[in-house]
């Protein structure tokens, strides 16, 4: 009996080892070239690919709109709005924000709801480019590893540039340029503070919140972001404000 049990345990051990090795090999074989993003733009994203797949089975979904542009062609107001709304510590952390995590927990306790994601812009970029919205522990581990690689391989301005070019701003609308043209009929370089705040406010719920919708909650969040932008004057020195100050009116 003992000998049989020993053989079973040994077989399980070998099987587990084979499974682990297989997983590692598969992960290495499919791991993205994160460093390449420092010089080249992504030709696809996991989220856009999934949207296109859904649209193939549901033709009622809007056609994909995605027009990546250079950092210099994205309004400084949108950069300020998105950082103010999504990750105020973006230019000072190394990919993860303990302040955001604590705030998410406080909000969950106050509202008796499950904590929100509390993801930084870098974490969101990793997820948008290569992962899914799943809460699977292995997926979260990949997100952590990819976030660290992004922070090591790209500077903050480049991370924000790529993020603004791939994030979803509405059904089928990805990236700042497409969003600006769809909702305001002009290039992203010409967005005003208010228009930028409207786009940033839709990021948590892009299928429901975006310019043109009627929602008190959305309008209140737009006003909140405008207030954050006004208070966060330090952001000007990171997003091309002359001498770190707001442009003269």
Which secondary structure elements does this structure contain, and how are they paired or packed?
Blueprint: H1 2-30, H2 46-57, E1 65-66, H3 76-86, H4 98-111, H5 121-130, H6 137-153, H7 156-166, E2 168-170, E3 173-174, H8 176-184, H9 193-201, H10 216-231
Structure description:
By secondary structure, the chain is mainly alpha-helical. It has one domain: Biosynthetic peptidoglycan transglycosylase-like (Penicillin binding protein transpeptidase fold), CATH 1.10.3810.10. Helices cover 55% and strands 3% of the residues. It has 10 helices and 3 strands, in the order ααβαααααββααα. A 3-stranded mixed sheet has the order 1-3-2, covered by helices on one side. Strand 2 (168-170) and strand 3 (173-174) form a beta hairpin. The model is unreliable at 16-29 (pLDDT under 50).
Level of helix content? 55-70%
Instruction: Trace the largest sheet across and list its strands.
Output: 1-3-2
CATH superfamily heading = Biosynthetic peptidoglycan transglycosylase-like
CATH topology: Penicillin binding protein transpeptidase fold
Q: According to CATH, what is the class?
A: Mainly Alpha
CATH architecture: Orthogonal Bundle
Number of helices: 10
What would the principal axes of the Cα set say about the shape? globular
Estimated radius of gyration: 21 Å
Query: In total, how many domains does the architecture comprise?
Result: 1
Provide the residue-averaged pLDDT: 84
Strand element count? 3
Order of helices and strands: HHEHHHHHEEHHH
């Amino acid at each position: 009996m003992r000998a049989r049990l020993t053989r079973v345990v040994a077989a399980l051990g070998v099987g587990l080892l084979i499974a682990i090795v297989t997983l590692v090999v598969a992960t290495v074989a499919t791991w993205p070239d994160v460093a390449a993003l420092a010089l080249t733009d992504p030709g696809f994203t996991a989220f856009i690919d999934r949207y296109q797949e859904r649209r193939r089975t549901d033709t009622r979904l809007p056609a994909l709109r995605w027009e990546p542009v250079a950092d210099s062609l994205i309004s400084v107001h949108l950069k300020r709005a998105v950082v103010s709304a999504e990750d105020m510590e973006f230019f000072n952390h190394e990919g993860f924000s303990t302040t955001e995590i604590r705030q998410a927990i406080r909000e969950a306790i106050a509202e008796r709801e499950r904590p929100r994601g509390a993801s930084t812009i870098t974490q969101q970029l990793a997820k948008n480019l290569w992962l899914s919205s799943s809460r699977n522990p292995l997926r979260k581990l990949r997100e952590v590893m990819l976030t660290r690689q992004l922070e090591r391989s790209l500077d903050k301005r480049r991370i924000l540039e790529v993020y603004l070019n791939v994030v979803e701003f509405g059904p089928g609308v990805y990236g700042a340029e497409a969003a600006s043209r769809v909702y305001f009929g002009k290039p992203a370089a010409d967005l005003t503070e208010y228009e930028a705040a409207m786009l940033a406010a839709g990021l948590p719920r892009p299928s429901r919140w975006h310019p043109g919708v009627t929602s008190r909650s959305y309008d209140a969040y737009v006003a909140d972001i405008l207030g954050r932008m006004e208070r966060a004057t330090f952001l000007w020195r990171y997003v091309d404000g002359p001498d770190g100050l707001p442009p003269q009116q």
